[in-house]
Fold this sequence. Notes:
Strand content: 15-25%
CATH architecture of the domain at 3-183: 4-Layer Sandwich
Number of helices: 15
Strand order of the largest sheet: 1-2-3-4-5-6-7
Structural class: alpha/beta
CATH topology of the domain at 3-183: Metallo-beta-lactamase, Chain A
Shape: globular
CATH class of the domain at 3-183: Alpha Beta
Oligomer: single chain
Number of strands: 13
Amino acid sequence: MSEQEQRKAPVGIEVTRGVWVLPSQGNGFAVETPDGVVVVDTGPGGRKTDQMIAALRALTDSPVIAICYSHGHFGYNFGVPQWLDHNAERGDDAPRLIAHRNLPLRYDRYRETEGYQAILNEMQFPGISARFEPTKVDPTETFDDHMVLCESPRIELLWVPSETDCALAMWLPDTRTLFAGAAVPADFIPNVGTPQRSLRLTGRWADTLDRLIELRPEVLVIEFGAFVTGEDLIAERMTTTAHALRWLRSEVVARLNHGMNDREILADLDYPPEVFDYPWLTHAYGSPDYIVRDLVREESGWWDRNPTSLHPAAPADVARVTFDAIADPDAVIAQAEALAADGNPQLAMHVIDLVALGPDDEPAVTRARAIKSDLCRERSKQVTPYPSKGLYKSSGIRLKQGIISWEGVGQ
């Protein structure tokens, strides 16, 4: 590594004596014990993981005796092989690999759906497939609800179902330091209902926050960003987050009980500032709209209340007959362009779809898809949640190529 690269290399940050935040995919964590270092997460692999190892070695020469997986999402522990190699090169024993018992089940599911996972990630993070090798190394040990990893200093692992059902937190009661991992999000509302992901159970996440509040942490290390200090501030942060989640559930259920569907609920709901206007409940990644849809999915099936969608015809057949039914495709396109010019790209997208979803061999369809690509780019500038921005951008890229399907991506 050159001198310039060394100056730019990420470094570890001391939280308390012998406890550090390490640069990882987000915040990694390290705790020094008399027997060696316990690490949480290993990074996405490659250069990032090399930098994480270097950051630790700038702080301590103690062997790494255990690696804990904060949760099973993409990239957080692709770097395990590099850490294993690092121990071997030093002549140290292989570290224990510890996770919640649900994590191997998640990895099994990801292996089974590897192509699909690649497509989902490419949709949300355009170009990510070229940057990461999705290496999944199963843990050597798992636990159910609670595990005491070390007595001095005391290190406890807690099951904290939240963004995933395999998430863990690390609790250091001697200094009341909590590494919350994915259970306490960075400065955004919890990541529930992300457009392409499985259910995350809003009420369960609120219950997890309640459990963490009862610990009365004095120091809180979150998944991204600076750690938080002060029992009162930490309690307020977690209490208001749990309250917002429960408020959303209550409001959605009330509307479901009146027969409303997800789109009707989204149109009817306002998000009161007394519930949501906190610096840690922004829409930077999570979104109340996402949570509403996840709550509807928790309580209902896949039908959107439109009888046409119950047993749909083949997409190619629908595309042809719909296009043939349009008397003047150019008029439809003109209406969409007028809406876009008036600052309404979302309404314009609804209109342009009448043509853009048509058969591939029609010149008007090609033109409509190019226009829809531009609408996606404009819409991505209007929305706040990062996943939505990524999905608009990746969709726009494909539409610019005249493609509306994701078949074959990632193969």
